[in-house]
Design a protein that fits this description.
four-stranded antiparallel β-sheet; eight-stranded antiparallel β-sheet; alpha+beta; 16 helices; NAD; Naphthalene 1,2-dioxygenase Alpha Subunit, Chain A, domain 1; 2 domains; single chain; monooxygenase activity; oxidoreductase; Rieske Iron-sulfur Protein
Length: 465
């Protein structure tokens, strides 16, 4: 069965009233009253001097400063399209999955009309979560604090001791705060708090071509296998998102031992593998993707490799994608959704303060894959990039190491170098958009340029102040 994903109008366009503006729509004066949040609570910093994307320099304060982190939540995360879930997690009305948009908890669910909607997971009475399960199936979301209950359309449907409230109290004023826009792309569900965003497809731009290399192998699309793995890492979320956008450079050094384990001889990869050539996609919206290019690129898991029809892939996706981003590579959709095509790994880097992130990872496979092939891909993903994966451990160690010393007074003032590949960006005539060399910081520079732009641009909730 398929679900309908369509933009929706939130009951309140200023979610959670975090911006201090009166909400738009039905819940106006009754829900807001005389509250008026002072602007001093939302101090902003001009970050122009912290990111020199043109010169390839970065100030470490962007990873450590608490004020900048708070600004990120409202200017980077709140206006952006953020990954929520996969459509395969919803098959019938009442199916739900709880996640985060930045640090805001949200419920993603299928309503009675089979539409996918998302709501702030916070009771309008005292603010506790109305759903504490990770996923499941329900008819209503009921707060365990005082019993306020909401239906699948976010309406407040039950209030214990309702007769104790004044005559002006109306249930319709106190429904769950709805994420105003929810859209999907090839099974990936995204949402944004922005009441008037560009469409998800427009936001992706040329990145869609690279995404399709993973998501559009055949008309049946993809499904999730093995649930969602979650773990916590020390380190700023941008360290992970940036690496997946731009960094093939670390592979041979950081993952040397893992490459030895996976090589047939146990002595490591052949020289032609170690020194592979390829391209790196550089997107003006901060997305990025890197991938080796070779006519014999293949999926790493043998069972998957032997099942895959590479000729059919070439016919559907073209030679450029099959020889590039279909298999080995890395990518990030700005700000914090990343994926690895070779093992079907998709993941979100949830920010948990400037010094910590929570990683949520799914394994997705082609729906047409038979059971034994799905299982081979799932196990290969766990072996390499699961919470105990031999590559994943290396990456987490690197990010925590970078973060551990970044708070030092002298250390924090020493600029970081992002100059690899400067001047190599061009349109190569094969891959859409601008690309650089495989070993390059170009997508990283673009990632931080986009971050700088959003950090210096008032979001919708600030424009009327």
């Amino acid at each position: 069965m398929t679900s309908t994903i369509e933009p929706t109008t939130a009951q309140e366009a200023c979610p959670g009233n975090a911006c201090g503006n009166p909400p738009q729509g039905r819940a106006t004066s009754a829900a807001r009253g005389a509250l008026d949040r002072p602007s001093e609570l939302q101090r902003t910093v001009d970050v122009s001097g912290l990111v020199d994307s043109e010169g390839g320099l970065l100030d470490r304060a962007i990873f450590t400063d608490r004020l900048l982190y708070s600004q990120e939540l409202r200017r980077v995360f709140a206006p952006s399209w953020l990954f929520l879930a996969h459509t395969d997690q919803f098959h019938k009305p009442g199916d739900f999955f709880t996640t985060y948009m930045g640090e805001d908890p949200v419920i993603v669910t299928m309503d009675k009309n089979r539409r996918i909607k998302a709501y702030l997971n916070s009771c309008r009475h005292r603010g506790a979560r109305v759903c504490r399960a990770d996923f499941g199936q329900t008819r209503n979301f009921t707060c365990t604090y005082h019993g306020w209950s909401y239906d699948l359309e976010g309406r407040l449907v039950s209030v214990p001791n309702e007769s104790g409230y004044p005559d002006s109290f109306r249930r319709e004023d106190w429904g769950l705060v709805e994420v105003p826009h929810v859209e999907s792309y090839h099974g990936l569900i995204f949402g944004t708090w922005n009441p008037e965003p560009v469409s998800l497809r427009e936001s992706l731009g040329d990145m869609a071509w690279y995404l399709d290399a993973m998501l559009d192998h055949d008309p049946e699309g993809t499904v999730v296998v093995g649930g969602v793995h979650k773990w916590v890492l020390d380190g700023n979320w941008k360290l992970a998102a940036e690496q997946f956008a731009t960094d093939w450079y670390h592979v041979n050094m950081s993952h040397a031992s893992a490459l030895m384990v996976l090589s047939p001889t146990g002595k490591g990869s052949k020289d032609e593998i170690v020194h592979r050539t390829g391209r790196q996609y550089v997107d003006p919206n901060g997305h990025g993707a890197g991938f080796p290019v070779h006519p014999k690129n293949r999926f790493d898991a043998d069972t998957v490799h032997h099942w895959m029809d590479y000729d059919a892939l070439r016919e559907r996706l073209g030679d450029a994608r099959v020889e590039g981003p279909v298999t080995t590579g890395h990518a990030t959709v700005f700000p914090n959704f990343s994926y690895l095509p070779v093992n079907g790994s998709i993941r979100i880097w949830h920010p948990k303060g400037p010094d910590e992130m929570e990683v949520w990872a799914w394994t997705i496979v082609d729906k047409s894959m038979p059971g034994e092939v799905r299982e081979a891909q799932r196990l290969y993903n766990l072996r390499t990039f699961g919470p105990t994966g031999i590559f994943e451990q290396d990456d987490g160690e690197n990010w925590s190491e970078c973060q551990a010393i970044a708070h030092g007074f002298i250390t924090n003032g020493v600029a970081l170098n992002y100059q690899m590949g400067m001047g190599s960006e061009r349109e190569d005539g094969i891959h859409p958009g601008t690309t650089s060399e495989l070993y390059s910081d170009a997508a990283g520079r673009s990632f931080y340029a986009r971050w700088r732009t959003l950090m210096n641009t008032p979001a919708w909730h600030e424009e009327t102040q």
